[in-house]
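Dear V.,

Thank you for sending over the compound details. I've combined the ligand you provided, 2-acetamido-2-deoxy-beta-D-glucopyranose, with the protein sequence from our construct and run the structure prediction for the complex. I'm sharing the raw inputs here so there's no ambiguity about protonation or stereochemistry in the SMILES, which I know was a concern on your side last time.
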Amino acid sequence: MPLMSLFGSKGRLVLSTFLLYAIIFELAYCQNDAQEQRTSLGKKANKPKLGKATNKGPRAVTTKPKVKTTAAQAQTFLTQVLNRGKFTKVGDTISIQAGDTLELRCRGKPVHWGVPLYLEEDDDGRLKIVQHERYGVLTLVNTTGADTGEYTCYPMYCEDTDCRKEYDKAVKVFVFFPDPQELFVPSSDYYEVIQLRTNWPTVLPCQVTSPEAKVTLHREFPPVEVVVDGTEISFNVKKGFTIHRPRPYHAGALYCVASLGNLRQSSTKYMLIYVNYPMAPPAPVIQASTSSVAVGENLRVSCTAVGEPNVAIEITWEYPGQEIGRPLYTQDGVSPVSGGAARQQTQSVLLVDEVRDVDQGTYTCTAQNLQGAKSVSTNVKVVPKTKPKKP
Ligand SMILES: *[C@@H]1O[C@H](CO)[C@@H](O)[C@H](O)[C@H]1NC(C)=O
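Below is the predicted structure of the protein with 2-acetamido-2-deoxy-beta-D-glucopyranose bound, written out as structure tokens.
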């Protein structure tokens, strides 16, 4: 009879005291464990990152009699409780008819549960989480299509009362709650504004409640179905549509349509607004007309940053005279860069007329775009007037 190492130290304590009782107890308990174990073995490939120590299947209790197994060493299990005493190891996704109860059981002491954001924020008493000695149970009753989403079990690693989630041992399952009335997970907004950033994947989160629904993407004006080729735009039943490398022509009002049986429904509208988005923060270059300037002469400090066309770069200055409120002026401009790929140069020139002693020090320019900011500095020394009146 194979036993799991997980079988608690408590059981063996009983064994030494009431031998006979304990054997019966273990056999009974073991059957349950073995069943869970078996169902899990068949689907191992689906399971993300198993704990390596216990990934060897069932084993006899006699092999490691003194090991006190903690949640950290144990394999993470996520099982769906079908009805009393019946478990099934969950795969990547499961479907539960809206209205039915979701019950998930996850091995570990303790475990932490992650649920769809809407459930976390809007607790109306339907979600119940109970921690038993060796496993946690999540129960969600009176379910609706809106409960569709990812449910995650994180085993906790505890030292005394200090516990932390073991992210690498988390087990996730995506649960669909097919709802005969709602093909899309309802949204509280009539429309949603989404920024399309140059070359950054954009998701249209039209989440269906049933994995069987056929989903298409549509443009409102002109009214056409958008081609989903899997490369430029792809669909994932757990996520919605992704526009992988947004371009200006992707902008506009779009919506999804789901059909299943006789039902055909439209999703929330997505207003896609195209934003020229830089690939990286700017890399400014600073240069002073001279590193050593005489009192009374003029100084120019220029700051230039080259970037994508139509992507704004803002340049700001810090200079020594700032503290005493010395007013300085800048000449700013944007010009195309000749040759090669389309680039543009943003330049700001700080003009210091009739340099005084207070102008000596560090000049810093900061160039900023939507991705971030970068500063560069240069030092300028102020020297006494050249050639005093004496011959
Ligand atoms: C679930 O629905 C039933 C029937 O409508 C209701 O009596 C019960 O209070 C609901 N339970 C919760 C926790 O909302």
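A first observation: The helical segments are 9-17, 19-41, 117-121.

Warm regards,
I. M.
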